[in-house]
């Protein structure tokens, strides 16, 4: 559900002499906050906590309004919106949902995808239309993005190999891959997850090992394996052409990005272009499932794990061929089935 009053306020502000202040009246703020609580089922444990969350909501709403004025004026290629994270500070948001942790100093992969020939590739690729991408999932308040990224690329490769799309278990990785270096809800790395599945000789189905969004003891069941892999490949670091080649010729690719900016927290539509993004300081695992061009802007189609109420029904279009913006090609990898 999109917040129509936010749109209306931004449009009104375009003709206002008070754009720099963008002050909300108490009535406008109250209406937005009540709509937010109703939409996302917020019930706070005390009046003091609700007041604190309302204060954070106000600051975030001001950011959203200011950004969307830039968007409506043509000064930004993407819009932002009130969503499930609007009562969280950016610091809280990053600490809870951005769980990519790369601890190894060197690559663990057996090989590198260095083919960066894009001349013969199609102008647009979208694996979500090919029956190899499961519906959007939700990691909830657990830093397990790395597990969702790894699972999405394994689901894709398994479907391409067998013709059967099977939803695989992120919880299996959260609970069982500590020996490889992952830390459950405290973070992890997709390559560690691939290493675990190789050594474990499989990963369970989601149906047999459902997601709980908490760290628990390992309950892997050999007779519930949904897929196996025998190796994994790293895409040449920082090379967007190599990543494009991999997405087009291989399938969904696990990628790590910098998702720390408030603009990412509230992304809604358009092609995400954030010059403050880092190409090296990465904190979130997602999956590149395609690429294309929107209104002249090249993009990567990226599957996130924050539910369908975020972004483009759970997806984001991220800038492509903009000097590896947000590090999307810095640590990309994929499993081999």
For this structure, what is the CATH homologous superfamily of the largest domain? Cysteine proteinases
Rg over CA atoms, rounded to whole Å, is 20 Å
Q: Provide the CATH top-level class of the largest domain.
A: Alpha Beta
- Helical fraction equals 25-40%
Please describe what this structure looks like.
This protein has 337 residues and is α+β, with helices and mostly antiparallel strands. It folds into two domains: 84 residues, Helix Hairpins; 241 residues, Cathepsin B, Chain A. Helix content is 33%, strand content 17%. Strands 1, 3, 7, 8, 9, 10 and 11 form a seven-stranded mixed sheet that branches. α1 crosses α3, α5 crosses α6 and α5 crosses α7. It is globular. It starts with a helix and ends with a strand. About 4% of the residues have low confidence.
Question: In short, what is this structure?
Answer:
The protein has 337 residues and is an alpha+beta fold.
Explain the layout of strands and helices:
Layout: H1 4-14, H2 26-40, H3 47-72, E1 78-80, H4 90-97, E2 111-113, E3 125-126, H5 145-162, H6 170-176, H7 190-200, E4 203-204, E5 225-227, E6 231-235, H8 240-249, E7 253-257, H9 262-265, E8 267-272, E9 284-294, E10 297-303, E11 315-319, E12 333-336
Parallel strand pairs: 2-6, 8-11
Antiparallel strand pairs: 1-8, 3-9, 4-5, 6-12, 7-9, 9-10, 10-11
GO molecular function, one term: cysteine-type peptidase activity
Protein name: Ale o 1 allergen
Family: Belongs to the peptidase C1 family.
